[in-house]
Structure formats: C-alpha cells, structure tokens
C-alpha cells in the first residue's frame, strides 16, 4: 500500500509541475487560438488556428496593422480577433462627416470584413488593457500556413 | 551536482509560484489617498491588501466590493476602487459629462471612497469588466489593521434602480 501511495503523490506532483509550466507558457509567451466567425475574412476564415504571442502587448509595443486577440469590451468572457487601425491620438473617420480621436491608452479595432464585423465602429475605442496577444502565424489549415505580418 | 539540482528546482519552482500568484492571488501595497477612509486611513503608513484572483475568475463582482483593475487610461497602471454600479444600473454621477449614466452591457462603474480626490469613473466613464484583475479581500499589513474588507456603498451613491427597489420593499 505504501509504495502505491507514494507513487500516486509523486505523479500528482508531476502533473501540477507540468500544468504550471504550461500555464506560464500559454499565459506569458504564446498560445494557439481557434478563430470563429466571418469578421476577419479574407485574412482569416472561420475555424482557422492562429499562433499568438503575448510579449508585444505586455510591453505595449502594438502597432497599426497588427492583428490582436482582445477581450470583448461588452462581454469579458468572449475574445475578439481584430486588426488595430488606430493608436492613441489618431483621427478615425466614423461616418460621412463625423470622426473620432482615439483617447490615451486605447486602440481602434476593426475587422477586415468591414461589412460583417462588430468592432470599434459599434462599441468605440478599446482599452489597451484588454489586449491579450498578437497573432503571428496562421498554422491551420495546412495548405494556407502563412505569416500575418501586414 | 548540487548546482544542477538547484537549477532544476528553480525551473520547477518558478512556474509553480507564478501560477499560484495568477490563480489564487497576491499581496500588494495601496498607493495614494483615493480610497480613504477604507484603505490608507492615515498618511504615515501604507496598507498592504490581499488581492484575491480566484474570486473574480468568472468576473462575477458585486456592488460595494473593492476591486483592482487596469486603468483604462494607462494600461501600465493598476488602480484600486470600489464598485458602485453594475451593468444596467442608473448611476448619478459626480462631475461626469452626463448627470445620470446607464451602465452598458459588460461594464461597471467604479469610484474611490475619497470623493473628489480620486481618478475614477466620474473621470473616465464606465469601465469594461475585462479590465478587472482581482478583488481586495483582506488587509494583511500593518498588523493593527488586520481585517477582512467589508462590502459597502454609501447611501448617497447607491444606483437609482437599486435604491428604488429598497424603498419599495420597505
């Protein structure tokens, strides 16, 4: 009985160790994201898998044109994948004659599929604190593996 | 041999520690006077609070709780405030662009207890719940202030829809 118990405790310990290492990798370095929905077509189609890194948003180095994964401002349990089209201070055209200036600490996010995307045009500028990661590569489907740099 | 053992335990120990801080919570010092009198009641010493991350894992925060959140104006700054209104509430503002605000979906209204000396929703408007990082649950230092943090909203700051229900139930 003794050795069995010792073995059990040992393997639980290993599971915790590897779980914590996985948590740190996915939380601080990079992870894989499955995208659903049509808002980023034709760059990203529904069910595509992306590799996204967390260092750029952490050090506040996001730029115009980057594709980012962010928490949805109206629903914190949902993530959105959009392109940054405006940084603080930029003037964004929101209508025929109206425009808006992106406030400090925010970004303007828009989907590439402008006719079918709910983005900053509906909920306004998004705080930078909600940005989780920056998409680098498309890794799935295999016939369309590509870099997502502008 | 000893050195390699040491490196091994660092490689294992650091991720376990970080994960613990991320999931369970951590202790942080409170800066500034914006939460007086609940936190930092006198100028000479700073309070240390336990920021409970487990309590906000599904973003279910309540009115009256003290939370820490990423400032919407400066993503590098974390601020500590009290939740006054949740989504759908009608909040009477103090010096915001509109006199009464209906909190939009997925947002909350946060205020410092020290009215007038706090950078809060009266300045930057409703904040998205996604910016909330933790709930302040205990004061852990100095020992004389050791206590649980009570949930509380001043009578005058209760959202209109909530106070209307309260009077109706009496």
Automatic annotation (TrEMBL), chain A:
Segments forming domain Peptidase S26: 15-93, 99-140
GO BP: any one term: signal peptide processing
Compartment list: Mitochondrion inner membrane
One cellular-component annotation, GO: mitochondrial inner membrane peptidase complex
Annotated catalytic residues: 39, 82
Swiss-Prot/TrEMBL keywords: Hydrolase, Membrane, Mitochondrion, Mitochondrion inner membrane, Protease
Broad class of where this protein is predominantly found: mitochondrion
UniProt xrefs under Gene3D superfamilies: Umud Fragment, subunit A
Molecular function in Gene Ontology: serine-type endopeptidase activity
E.C. no: 3.4.21.-
Family indicated by similarity: Belongs to the peptidase S26 family. IMP1 subfamily.
NCBIfam families per UniProt: sigpep_I_bact
Assembly and interaction partners: Heterodimer of 2 subunits, IMMPL1 and IMMPL2.
Protein name: Mitochondrial inner membrane protease subunit
The organism's taxonomic lineage, starting at the top: Eukaryota, Metazoa, Ecdysozoa, Arthropoda, Hexapoda
TrEMBL record, chain B:
PANTHER family (alphabetical): MITOCHONDRIAL INNER MEMBRANE PROTEASE SUBUNIT 2
Membrane topology reported for the UniProt record: Single-pass membrane protein
Assigned keywords, A-Z: Hydrolase, Membrane, Mitochondrion, Mitochondrion inner membrane, Protease, Transmembrane, Transmembrane helix
Chain ranges of the Peptidase S26 domain: 5-91, 99-141
Active site as annotated: 34, 81
Biological-process GO terms, alphabetical: protein processing involved in protein targeting to mitochondrion; signal peptide processing
Compartments where located: Mitochondrion inner membrane
Molecular function in Gene Ontology: serine-type endopeptidase activity
GO-annotated cellular components: mitochondrial inner membrane peptidase complex
Main localization of the protein described in the UniProt heading: mitochondrion
Family stated for the protein in its record: Belongs to the peptidase S26 family. IMP2 subfamily.
Protein name: Mitochondrial inner membrane protease subunit 2
Entry keyword Membrane: yes
Transmembrane segments: 6-28
Subunit structure: Heterodimer of 2 subunits, IMMPL1 and IMMPL2.
């Amino acid at each position: 009985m003794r050795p069995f118990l010792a073995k059990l405790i040992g393997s639980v310990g290993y599971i915790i160790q590897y779980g914590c290492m996985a948590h740190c990798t996915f939380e601080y370095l990079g992870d894989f994201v499955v995208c659903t929905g049509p808002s980023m077509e034709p760059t990203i189609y529904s069910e595509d898998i992306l590799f996204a890194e967390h260092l750029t948003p952490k050090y506040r180095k996001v730029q115009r044109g980057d594709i980012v994964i962010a928490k949805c401002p109206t629903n914190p349990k949902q993530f959105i994948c959009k392109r940054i089209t405006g940084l603080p201070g930029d003037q964004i055209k929101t209508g025929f004659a109206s425009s808006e200036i992106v406030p400090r600490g925010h970004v303007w996010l828009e989907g590439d599929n402008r006719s079918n995307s709910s983005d900053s045009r509906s909920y306004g500028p998004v705080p930078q604190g909600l940005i989780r990661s920056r998409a680098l590569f498309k890794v799935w489907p295999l016939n369309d593996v590509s870099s997502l740099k502008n | 041999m000893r050195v390699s053992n040491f490196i091994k335990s660092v490689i294992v120990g650091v991720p376990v520690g970080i994960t613990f801080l991320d999931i369970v919570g951590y202790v942080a010092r409170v800066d500034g006077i914006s939460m007086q009198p609940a936190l930092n009641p006198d100028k000479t010493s700073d309070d240390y609070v336990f920021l409970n991350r487990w309590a906000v894992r599904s973003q279910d925060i309540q009115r009256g709780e003290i939370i820490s959140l990423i400032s919407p104006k400066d993503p590098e700054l974390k601020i500590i405030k009290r939740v006054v209104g949740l989504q759908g509430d009608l909040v009477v503002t103090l010096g915001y662009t509109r006199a009464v605000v209906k909190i939009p979906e997925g947002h909350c209204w946060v205020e410092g207890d020290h009215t007038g000396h706090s950078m809060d929703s009266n300045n930057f408007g409703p904040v998205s719940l996604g910016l909330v990082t933790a709930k302040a649950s205990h004061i852990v230092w100095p020992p004389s202030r050791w206590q649980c943090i009570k949930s509380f909203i001043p009578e005058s700051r209760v959202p209109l829809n909530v106070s209307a229900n309260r009077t109706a139930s009496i």
